[in-house]
Amino acid sequence: MILCIETTTQNCSVALVDKGAVVFEERRCTDQYVHAEQLHPLIAFCLEQAHITANELTAVAVSSGPGSYTGLRIGVSAAKGLSFALHIPLIAIDTLHMLGIYGLQHTPAQTAIAMIDARRMEVYASVVDSNSATPAEALVVDKSFFDAYDPSSLVLVGDGASKCSGLVSASTIVLDVMPDASMMAAMAQEHWDKQRFVDVAYYEPHYLKDYIVGVSTKSIL
Questions:
Q1: The domain containing residue 140 runs over which residues?
Q2: What is the CATH number of the domain that holds 123?
Q3: Cα–Cα distance between 164 and 27 in angstroms, integer?
Q4: 2: left (phi over 0), alpha (psi -120 to 50) or beta
Q5: pTM as predicted
Q6: Less CB within 10 Å around the terminal CB: N or C of the chain?
């Protein structure tokens, strides 16, 4: 049984996967990031509902980003902690590739542009087809970005897709969905089957951009 953890956006989700199929899943999604408070209770709840203990897990898979710095840090820290404590492999799943595959599987599109919201008109994006995915980029999207793609065979997928809907043809499909642990099932199983694991000690999520600490404008006096 593989435990899948996805925390790259405001959706904090967990799924248990056996032979590529989701056995049980649970999520919390609010306007605020609740990952620190909710992730471990969600994991415990999923294990309880599946009637297994943590010692019966064979691997932990984590969505590796890009996305929220805080969400990634919490998800990866939890995954590494479980992997280390239980002596089981750690699997890293590229979030944008996962979203792109989801878009292709749920629409007739031949090309997916996976997009995670990075505020204003910026997105973290990757172009995905059945054979490959381009490296993730942080992009300020404008209409010219989509000129290279056939709008009738294109899907925009992710929580950054909707803000680009006005820049594409009406024939382009827009799937406004957040990354979710349930989407990781097939890729996590494939990584397990092919023994594609990451080093627990040295693995870091794909932040893509450096974290910038905000400066408060409030007076402390």
A1: 96-175
A2: 3.30.420
A3: 26
A4: beta
A5: 0.91
A6: C
